[in-house]
Design brief:
The protein is an alpha/beta fold. It contains 14 helices and 21 strands.
């Protein structure tokens, strides 16, 4: 397809004429679409119309704003299977994962529609009996939403729907790897008749389109999900501008802790899902399996044997568990860390890597790489995010040691503990550093009504519906005096 930007309620090509191709990572000979390579001038036009639309949109009833979201979700539900198929073609996720991605976007939009009729403030007590005190939420203005490729429908809804419901206008800059899903989102907003300028789409690459959006003085909030280095630069820009703020979620070096009393069948299944769903390309993927020494041999054997049976192939095939990684850059990065593990002394349990046999040559397919390594704070492979099917199995003896291994990284996003002992689970819940935690589950599987985000290098904000509202609104206090004289709080004298 020939895609366009969506600015001010209209489909527009970039006047500069530059385009880029959207390539199927499972078959690099297939071009999914061609999209505009936008630049600063396109961004300036989008910000201009978003600012103009803001004054009217924020005054519209919150309930009426919510009805646009309800209309949006009805269109998505009717075309969910088509969306999942296009997503599999575009980003290489297995078709069942793509369906789940669409469902999560549906759930997020439904959740925010439901919020449209709930309180958006509080009535609180005043120190003075004759006063009424209120806390109200106000929108912040123009929101820049910048999302990654790996959840090209769900994550945008995390960012866009709360922003719109609360009365902000949005400029959406998706990953250049998944412009088609972004085009579909804009198409649905167009079809439901969202007022012009309330939602805008800018296609293109980060330096030319994303960065001008981040640095634009009329953008009030930047919502970003992506890599830690980019998120760090965004935070610097926003910190330097007193009017601008950022909410960023920026990856992880996540772990599953398998205790000595664990149900090993459950542990292996949780680890397989955590490590290799989406080919390990989730910010919550587990690349460290911290396993008690009493069960590590049995666990490792079962984990490796299960990984060998994983079906890798065309993501639109219902039997496929792992599709390709996203591009050649990802292949190179994962290969680098696989080789680095060998150099740093790992015991290789499953030699994974680039697949080039029949059915794989035209795509970016990689098989699971699994190794065992005793904990040491020096190896980079135990500390740096790989974002691929690359997994370390690390032994521990005591719960205190497991906690230390878990926390001794710069990230703090997702973790899981596999145990039958609620006391161990509680200790790990209280002592581990994370934003999303699970017991006897994979490290993946977020639900839209729960907070999602992390600590340390993993982020500064919580970009999901239940908490993103705090990033796209500010709270104001409103106090009313019902008396005919002034009485001051804290016992201050009202006399002049």
């Amino acid at each position: 397809m020939q895609g366009k930007n969506y600015i001010g309620g209209e489909w527009v090509s970039s006047p500069w004429g530059e385009t880029f191709e959207d390539i199927n990572p499972a078959n690099t000979q297939e071009v999914v679409g061609v999209f505009p390579k936008s630049n600063q001038k396109d961004v300036e036009e989008a910000v201009k119309v978003a600012r103009e639309a803001y004054s009217t949109w924020r005054r519209l009833s919150r309930i009426k704003r919510g009805e646009y979201l309800d209309n949006f979700v009805q269109l998505v539900k009717a075309e969910a299977e088509e969306l999942a198929y296009l997503m599999a073609k575009e980003c290489g996720k297995a078709i069942n994962e793509c369906r789940a991605d669409v469902v999560e976007g549906i759930h997020m939009t439904q959740f925010m529609f439901g919020r449209s009729r709930t309180p958006y403030g509080d009535v609180v007590a005043s120190e003075i009996g004759e006063k009424d005190a209120y806390m109200l939420r106000r929108p912040k203005g123009v929101i820049a939403a910048i999302s990654p490729w790996n959840f090209p429908f769900a994550i945008p809804t995390w960012l866009i729907m709360p922003s719109l419901l609360e009365g902000n206008t949005v400029i959406f800059k998706p990953s250049e790897e998944t412009p088609l899903m972004a085009h579909k989102i804009a198409e649905y907003f167009h079809r439901v008749g969202l007022p012009a300028g309330v939602f805008n789409l800018i296609q293109g690459h980060g330096p030319q389109a994303g960065w001008p959006l981040v640095t634009h003085p009329d953008v009030d909030v930047v919502l970003f999900v992506g890599s830690a280095p980019v998120g760090a630069e965004i935070k610097k820009v926003c910190a330097a501008d007193y009017r601008k703020m950022a909410a960023c979620e920026m990856g992880g070096k996540n772990a599953i802790i398998v205790c000595d009393d664990a149900n090993l069948e459950l542990a292996v299944n949780a680890a397989i899902l955590s490590a290799f769903k989406t080919s390990g390309q989730r910010c919550v993927s587990a690349s460290r399996l911290i396993v008690h020494e009493k069960v590590i041999d049995a666990f490792s054997k079962a984990f490796v044997e299960t990984a060998k049976r994983i079906v890798i192939g065309d993501p639109v095939d219902e039997k496929v568990f792992m599709g390709p990684v996203i591009n050649q850059k990802a292949v190179d990065k994962i290969t680098f860390y696989n080789n680095l593990a060998r150099e740093e002394g790992a015991e290789i349990l499953l030699k994974g890597g680039r697949l080039d046999g029949e059915g794989y040559r035209q795509g970016y397919f990689m098989s699971p790489f699994i190794y065992r390594m005793k904990y040491d704070s020096r190896p980079r492979v135990l500390r740096e995010e790989v974002f691929g099917p690359h997994v370390a199995i690390v032994p521990f003896r005591t719960l205190e040691e497991a906690i230390h291994i878990h926390n001794d990284v710069e990230y703090g996003l997702a973790m899981s503990v596999i145990t039958e002992d609620y006391r161990k689970a509680r200790t790990l819940r209280e002592e581990c550093e994370y934003g999303v935690g699970y017991v006897n589950l994979p490290s993946i599987g977020a639900e839209v009504h729960l907070p999602f985000g992390g600590l340390k290098k993993s982020g500064t904000g919580l970009p999901s519906a239940s908490t993103l509202i705090d990033a796209v609104t500010h709270r104001v206090a409103w106090t009313v005096n019902n008396a005919t004289e002034i009485k001051m709080a804290q016992g201050l004298s009202a006399a002049v």
